[in-house]
Design a protein that fits this description.
The chain is built from 2 helices and 7 strands; from the N terminus they run βββααββββ.
Length: 114
């Protein structure tokens, strides 16, 4: 299952924030971009599990183009798509570079390919 995500750039003193606009209240963060990517997968999973237990419907994903127009407050953020089932998160930066993060058994085994 894929959901668009918006990533707030962090630095050495600020965490990287991640929101999932299609899932109200679903967000995560990490001290590094990799940690933020991995943590958002867990946030999505928990959000969906909780809402299913409450008998709520799970919304379908919206296109990034639509979400960018709907949420101008994320204009300077990086947009991507989280596939939390397979463990991959694809991030399309503004310069159209594709970054994919694959989670292995642990964070230390994370592979980044460009």
């Amino acid at each position: 299952m894929y959901y668009p995500i918006a990533i707030e750039p962090g630095d050495e003193t600020h965490a990287f924030g991640v929101v999932v606009p299609d899932l109200p209240g679903c967000f995560s963060a990490g001290d590094t971009m990799i940690e933020a990517f991995i943590n958002v997968r867990e946030a999505i999973k928990l959000w969906i599990e909780t809402n299913l237990e409450l008998g709520k419907k799970i919304p379908k994903a919206t296109s990034i183009v639509t979400l960018r127009a709907k949420y101008p407050e994320y204009a300077d953020w990086v947009w991507g798509v989280a596939d939390f089932d397979s463990g991959a998160i694809s991030i399309t930066e503004f310069d159209n570079v594709l970054l994919t993060v694959f989670e292995s058994a642990s964070l230390s085994n994370t592979i980044i390919s460009r």
